């Protein structure tokens, strides 16, 4: 996702770009993504914002609840919902044929280019070879799935050491996700409020995976190489910011390199993006740990209720640069 965003921005800045994608093609299925306003602004500046809006839907106001359905607070609706395949399709369609080369796994050392962008995810081989840094487990696992019916609104339900979330999609289906301890399972949610039991009963192809994060890197760049997205700052999904920050990374990198000087452009990209994204990694991990609280749950819920009542709609990345790519 970050790689496609960077490719669009760099082409608009006059670069000749090739995207090497090891998969055979774009995915046909995938979970829902919440695109917050700063990421949507980045998509606008890349020229694909309107297409992204048409490919998804605006998120209706949601709620945060206890397992019995008691409302702790309300979530704002300043988010646009798209499935991962839909957003990847919007980004890929903005590039000319031949720019994205599917089924080509390459190493950065084998790329004879002025600039190499490592957008190869949380298990990044580029990052591993440059810095030797691996992701760390958060102590929780995530579960994801989709059901073929709509829910009126999304939101999350927080229990004792676990949580469950619902995300309505534009096609009338619903994506869901859950967080448990590594030795937990989905039976923890079987007695929770509607429609959670029905969602679990009608789900197919449920995915389970460790929720990992990346410790802070000293830099996102080295020589002619830049890391973006999860390769640079993988975070737990608790803030819903992984895709958003990858998109913003792509725009920020292209903006910093618009003048054409690689060395100074990479330094500027690192200055603009590293501290912001690493703060988000820490905040997301903190929220992950709060969701896993097993003692003093009423105290946590009270604090959560107050935070939801007082919190303004978040603007996660106030460091977007002036619109140098709008032409």
UniProtKB/TrEMBL annotation:
SUPFAM superfamilies: FAD/NAD(P)-binding domain. This is FAD-dependent monooxygenase. The keyword Oxidoreductase applies. Keywords: Monooxygenase, Oxidoreductase. InterPro entries: FAD-bd (IPR002938), FAD-dep_Monooxygenase_BioMet (IPR050493), FAD/NAD-bd_sf (IPR036188). It comes from Saccharothrix mutabilis subsp. mutabilis. Residues 218-284 form the FAD-binding domain. GO terms for molecular function: monooxygenase activity.
């Amino acid at each position: 996702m970050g790689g496609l965003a960077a490719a669009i921005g760099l082409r608009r800045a006059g670069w000749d770009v090739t995207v090497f994608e090891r998969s055979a093609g774009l995915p046909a299925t995938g979970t829902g993504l919440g695109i917050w306003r700063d990421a949507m602004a980045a998509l606008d500046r890349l020229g694909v914002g309107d297409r992204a809006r048409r490919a998804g839907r605006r998120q209706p106001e949601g709620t945060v609840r206890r397992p019995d359905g008691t409302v702790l607070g309300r979530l704002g609706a300043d988010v646009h919902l798209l499935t991962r395949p839909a957003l990847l399709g919007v980004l890929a369609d903005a590039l000319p044929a031949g720019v994205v080369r599917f089924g080509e796994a390459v190493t950065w050392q084998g790329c004879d280019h002025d600039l190499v962008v490592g957008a190869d995810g949380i298990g990044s081989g580029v990052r591993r070879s440059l810095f030797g840094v691996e992701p760390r487990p958060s102590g929780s696992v995530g579960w994801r799935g989709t059901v073929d019916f709509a829910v009126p609104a999304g939101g999350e339900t927080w229990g004792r050491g676990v949580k469950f979330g619902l995300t309505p999609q534009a096609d009338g289906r619903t994506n869901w996700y859950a967080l448990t301890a590594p030795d937990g399972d989905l039976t923890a949610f079987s007695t929770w409020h509607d429609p959670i039991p029905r969602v679990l009963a009608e789900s197919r192809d449920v995915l389970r995976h460790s929720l990992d994060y990346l410790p802070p890197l000293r830099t996102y760049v080295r020589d002619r190489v830049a890391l973006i997205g999860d390769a640079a700052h993988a975070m737990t999904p608790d803030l819903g910011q992984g895709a958003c920050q990858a998109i913003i990374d792509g725009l920020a990198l292209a903006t910093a390199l618009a003048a054409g000087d690689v060395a100074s452009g990479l330094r500027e990209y690192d200055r603009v993006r590293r501290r912001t994204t690493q703060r988000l990694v820490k905040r997301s991990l903190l929220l992950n740990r709060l969701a896993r609280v097993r003692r003093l749950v009423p105290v946590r819920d009270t604090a959560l209720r107050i935070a939801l009542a007082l919190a303004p709609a978040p603007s996660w990345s106030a460091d977007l640069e002036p619109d140098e790519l709008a032409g």
